[in-house]
UniProtKB/TrEMBL annotation:
One example GO MF annotation: S-adenosylmethionine-dependent methyltransferase activity
Organism: Vibrio furnissii
Name of this protein: SAM-dependent methyltransferase
InterPro entries for this protein: Methyltransf_11 (IPR013216), SAM-dependent_MTases_sf (IPR029063)
Keyword Methyltransferase recorded: yes
Domain Methyltransferase type: 74-125
SUPFAM superfamilies with a match to the protein in the record: S-adenosyl-L-methionine-dependent methyltransferases (SSF53335)
Length: 244
């Protein structure tokens, strides 16, 4: 298993137009995001990265939405993803679209997101699955240096393991796009549906929704107490003699 941290200089996409079939990928994510946005509640939402900024979330109940990136023109906050300019537990939901695939230290990204996310807050993660046709294409010499194959793809199970370490409960994990071809899409969709759940682990894309769970460090003691056993109590008394 390759280490999560890397010293290589990875090219990070800031727009879906930089990715192969990027428009179709964003549309597939948008369809799933539209289903989840009405279920999110709170005051502040963070869209991390340029790809997240281009996703639409106008049907979300969270009105104040911060779009953080360096190069994407849709951003309203410019900052480093490894050092978010927010207070601890101040964000209600975070969208991280394909950011872990193109960062040198995904653990640091997740820990920083966990720092600013409130208890019971939501995180939505998307990315490419290396155990798929898209992942296998990165082995080709003429593609591994170009987007999207130049990234470091991680399996959805590994992402879920990282989330479990941070005490997150995975609510949904959708793996799809067994055939990541944009042309003749109805035909590929029909073939994918014919495989059923058997082909899901080899889907090129994953869509994970997790919720932050915080557990107390100390056990809560019960309020009730055991009753004491009755024991005889010595009482001082004087015996009156008959001679008196």
């Amino acid at each position: 298993m390759k280490p999560a941290r890397s010293e290589k200089n990875l090219e990070k996409p800031h727009s879906w137009s930089q990715l192969k079939n990027g428009q179709w990928v964003s549309e597939s994510i948008q369809t799933r995001l539209d289903e989840w946005c009405p279920k999110l509640f709170g005051y502040h939402m963070l869209k991390l990265g340029g790809l997240s900024c281009e996703l639409v979330s106008c049907n979300c109940n969270i009105q104040h939405q911060v779009q953080l990136d360096i190069q994407n023109p849709l951003h309203n906050v410019i900052a480093d993803a490894y050092d978010l300019p927010f207070l601890e537990k101040s964000i209600d939901a975070v969208i991280v679209a394909h950011q872990l695939d193109y960062c040198n230290d995904p653990h640091s990204i997740l820990r920083e997101v966990d720092r600013v996310l409130i208890d019971d807050g939501y995180i939505i993660l998307t990315g490419f699955n290396p155990l798929s046709l898209t992942g296998l294409a990165s082995l080709m010499p003429w593609r591994k240096h170009n987007l999207p194959w130049s990234g470091r793809m991680f399996t959805p199970n590994r992402i879920k393991d990282w989330l479990s370490v941070l005490n997150y409960q995975v609510i949904e994990c959708d793996q799809y796009a067994l055939f990541p071809m944009q042309k003749y899409r109805p035909l590929w969709t029909w073939l994918e549906n014919s495989f059923g759940d058997c082909g899901a682990p080899f889907g090129s894309l994953y869509f994970i929704v997790a919720r932050k769970r915080t557990y107390p460090l100390k056990p809560i003691k019960p309020h009730w107490r055991l009753k004491r056993r009755l024991s005889p109590v010595g009482v001082n008394y004087r015996v009156k003699s008959d001679s008196q």
